[in-house]
Amino acid sequence: MAELIVVRHGQAAFGQENYDQLSDVGFEQARLAGDALRDMGWVPDRLISGTLERQRDTLSTMGFEGDVEEHAGFNEYDFGDLLRARYDGNIPDLVKGDRKVHFRTLRETVFEWQADALVAPYETWGQFEARVADALGFATDTIARRVLVVSSGGVIGQLVASTLEAPKKMMMEVNLQIKNASITRFVFSKGRVFLTGMNATPHLDRKATQHLMTYS
Fold first, then answer.
1. Each residue of 165-207: pLDDT tens digit?
2. Under 8 Å CB-to-CB from 64, ≥6 apart: which residues?
3. How far apart are CA 11 and CA 3, in angstroms?
4. How far apart are CA 139 and CA 185, in angstroms?
5. What SS3 state is found at 69?
6. pLDDT given at position 90
7. Strands (E), 89-191
8. Domain range for 25
9. Alpha carbons 165 and 179: distance in angstroms, whole number
10. Average of per-residue pLDDT across 125-150
11. Which pLDDT belongs to residue 122?
């Protein structure tokens, strides 16, 4: 069977005006993730990224050679828009600025999104499901034997949940556990995809690098 590894982008700029950029920690996480794959003897023969800056920069920093393909289906859902839809454009300051409140509220908001309870979100839950499925098909419809994708936590959560045929709420439960620059592994053959490992961070589990472990 061929292998698909999906890496979450490195730490982004939480709380900054432009979230879609890696922090200094994010660049280091990405470099270490690339080193970890090389240490395993795992070198991709196909490279794919979402179109977001933090995803593209993570892949380039990982240091693998080859042409990079992009697929917008691997882009994260727009959590800012979902919050604006929930609060009619007036997101409370505490939700925007406090990490615990932000992610607790985001979890509740995604559940509302999945239930089609938000008014006019930029993207429906069904559209998100469909584009992630299309992106997975794009990545696995290939003669390549080792495919590397850089994506985001929500997409990885959906890939895991859909592959396991889990209830749709599981997408968000997984999303909130996915660490920056973590490695999630699948194998695929003849249109079938199987999860073989999730959220691994061997490059950050060592004493010398534990301080680089982040979730957002």
1. 999 999 999 999 999 999 999 999 988 999 999 999 999 999 9
2. 34, 43, 44, 47, 148
3. 25
4. 13
5. strand
6. 82
7. 146-151, 183-189
8. 2-76+145-212
9. 22
10. 98
11. 93
Q: Report the 10 Å Cβ neighbour count for 132.
A: 24
Nearest alpha carbon to residue 157 among 78, 74, 100: 74
Contact by Cβ (8 Å): 141, 153: no
Cα 24 from Cα 16, distance rounded (Å): 14
Six-digit token pair at 135? 């992106």
What string of DSSP letters covers 85-98? HHTTT---HHHHH-
In a domain, 125, yes or no: no
Contact status, residue 52 vs residue 83, Cβ threshold 8 Å: no
At 14, the pLDDT band (50, 70, 90 cuts) reads: low
Across the strands, what pairs with 46?
147
Q: Is there a domain that residue 8 lies in?
A: yes
Residue 95 has a pLDDT of: 75
Specify if 81 maps to a domain: no
Q: Which residue has the tokens 């998100």?
A: 128
Q: Tell me how far apart the alpha carbons of residues 61 and 50 are, in angstroms, rounded to a whole number.
A: 15
Structure tokens at 24: 């200094």
What's the longest Cα–Cα distance across the chain? 50
Residue 194 identity (one-letter amino acid):
F
Q: What is the CATH number of the domain that holds 193?
A: 3.40.50.1240
Residue 124 sits at the vertex; the CA angle it makes with 120 and 130, to the nearest 5 degrees, is 160
Asked if residue 186 is part of any domain, the answer here is yes
